[in-house]
Specification:
This protein has 5 helices and 17 strands. It has 419 residues and is an alpha+beta fold. Helix 4 runs antiparallel to helix 5. The longest helix is centred in the C-terminal third of the chain and has 47 residues. The termini are close together.
């Protein structure tokens, strides 16, 4: 924290907490349900049918089309409807495709190769998204797009801030997420391919950042470049995105509030500075400095990570900014002690000079018309001591001013840190 910094609570409101995790995933291969009915039809046999992958056997070099029939979620992407492929010279065909999470269901593969058709069921396990690795897609809402629950009107003037925030999010999200989760989770940004979660950026301002859940388990995240009268910094915008992504898994249970946050902030003993309470509290407070520079939490606490399903949680990586701050604070404490000692020396010399000056003035007042030789000798000795004391004090003041300049330099460095 910088010296003289003020605290500003930034409200990062999410909607209801994640739906309970579904039963264990149904994994397995489904064998072909049907081959071509006519003896002259191209032979097609499904060998393996899982969500995201189909393996079949057909005529060598046959051109095939796979249809994926699945019920869509209320929020989020769907798998591709059709895919084209060609069997290899042995007649084997393997098709893989992006498989974003869907509501729990039994979907269907329909494979057509030449004149032959075969179909097979697809067991879809349902939500939640796997925390270890997931994909995300960033999109910008259109100026006339109607978003459920968003009453804020589009503001074209926010387009510059929006584009800056989208650029920062695109450039840093993967690395920031990995660091925030201590390397336990990775997010892969995709553009054209279907994604596990979609982050929609709305060119508007609102005091609520929305994580919307549907009864089918699907989720949508909406981000805004401004909150009320405040345009968010890119650092704050990325922190908001981390927080909202955390809502995929957090927070529920007796320690959580109805809005999906922790009911009470609990400090993580291994986190420091603004990160010490993690990311899943409400509100998340950012530090706003006098120069207008803002720094926000961007690390999940151990409690946050356990809510994501992780049990073996490593210590967080060292925070270079916090380490630098600690070193500077230790240096500043040493300088304060030296400044106090230097000031005590100046004060002592000042008191001695005041006493000598009083003695000199007393002799001058007592002998206005001249002093006897023995008195004058004492008078001259007092003046010599006084002048020597003045020289000493000048040196002491110079030392004090040097220490003060060093102390102010350290304070300037502390004020330049974003932690």
């Amino acid at each position: 924290m910088r010296l003289g910094a003020t605290l500003l609570g930034v409200v990062l409101t999410a909607c209801a907490s994640a739906a309970p995790a579904p039963d264990s995933a149904i994994v397995g291969a489904a064998t072909a349900a049907a081959s071509a009915a006519s003896p002259s039809a191209t032979p097609v046999t499904v060998v393996e049918s899982t969500y995201g992958r189909l393996v079949a056997r057909t005529a060598p070099g046959a051109r095939c089309t796979l249809e994926v029939h699945a019920g869509p979620p209320r929020y989020g992407d769907t798998p591709p409807g059709t895919l084209d492929a060609v069997a290899d010279p042995s007649g084997m065909l393997t098709i893989t495709y992006p498989a974003p999470p869907l509501p729990r269901q039994t979907a269907r593969h329909v494979l057509t190769c030449g004149t032959g058709v075969a179909s097979a069921d697809i067991p879809v396990a349902g939500y939640p998204i796997a925390a270890q690795h997931f994909t995300a897609r960033i999109r910008v809402a259109g100026p006339t797009e109607q978003i459920e629950g968003v009453t804020a009107r589009p503001e074209p003037a926010l387009a510059v801030a929006r584009d800056r925030d989208v650029e920062a999010l695109t450039r840093t999200l993967a690395a920031e997420w990995s660091t925030a989760t201590r390397g336990l989770s990775t997010v892969e940004l995709v553009t054209a391919a279907p994604a596990d979660i979609v982050l929609t950026v709305v060119t508007a301002r609102t005091n609520s950042y929305l994580s919307r859940w549907s009864g089918d388990g699907s989720m949508a995240i909406f981000l805004f470049p401004a909150a009320d009268a405040t345009v968010l910094s890119p650092d704050n915008f990325v922190a908001v995105a981390l927080h909202e992504l955390g809502h995929i898994w957090c927070c529920s249970g007796p320690d959580a509030s109805p809005d999906g946050h922790w009911a009470q902030p609990v400090a993580d003993p291994l986190l420091q500075g603004i990160d010490r309470f993690g990311l899943m509290n409400h509100p998340v407070s950012c530090i706003v400095f006098a120069a207008g520079v803002e720094s926000c939490p961007n690390r999940f606490s151990e409690r946050d990570l356990r809510a994501m399903g992780f049990t073996q949680i490593p210590p967080p990586p060292r925070n270079a900014c916090v380490d630098t701050k600690d070193a500077l604070l230790a240096q500043l404490a040493g300088l304060k002690d030296r400044l106090a000692a230097a000031k005590a020396s100046v004060d002592a010399t000042d008191a001695s000079l005041a006493a000598l000056n009083a003695q000199i003035k007393a002799l001058e007042a007592r002998y206005p018309n001249g002093m006897p030789p023995d008195v004058y000798a004492s008078y001259s000795a007092l003046i010599d001591r006084f002048n020597a004391g003045v020289a000493t004090e000048r040196s002491q003041v110079a030392t004090y001013n040097t220490l003060l300049a060093q102390s102010n330099g350290v304070i300037d460095q502390l004020n330049g840190l974003l932690c």
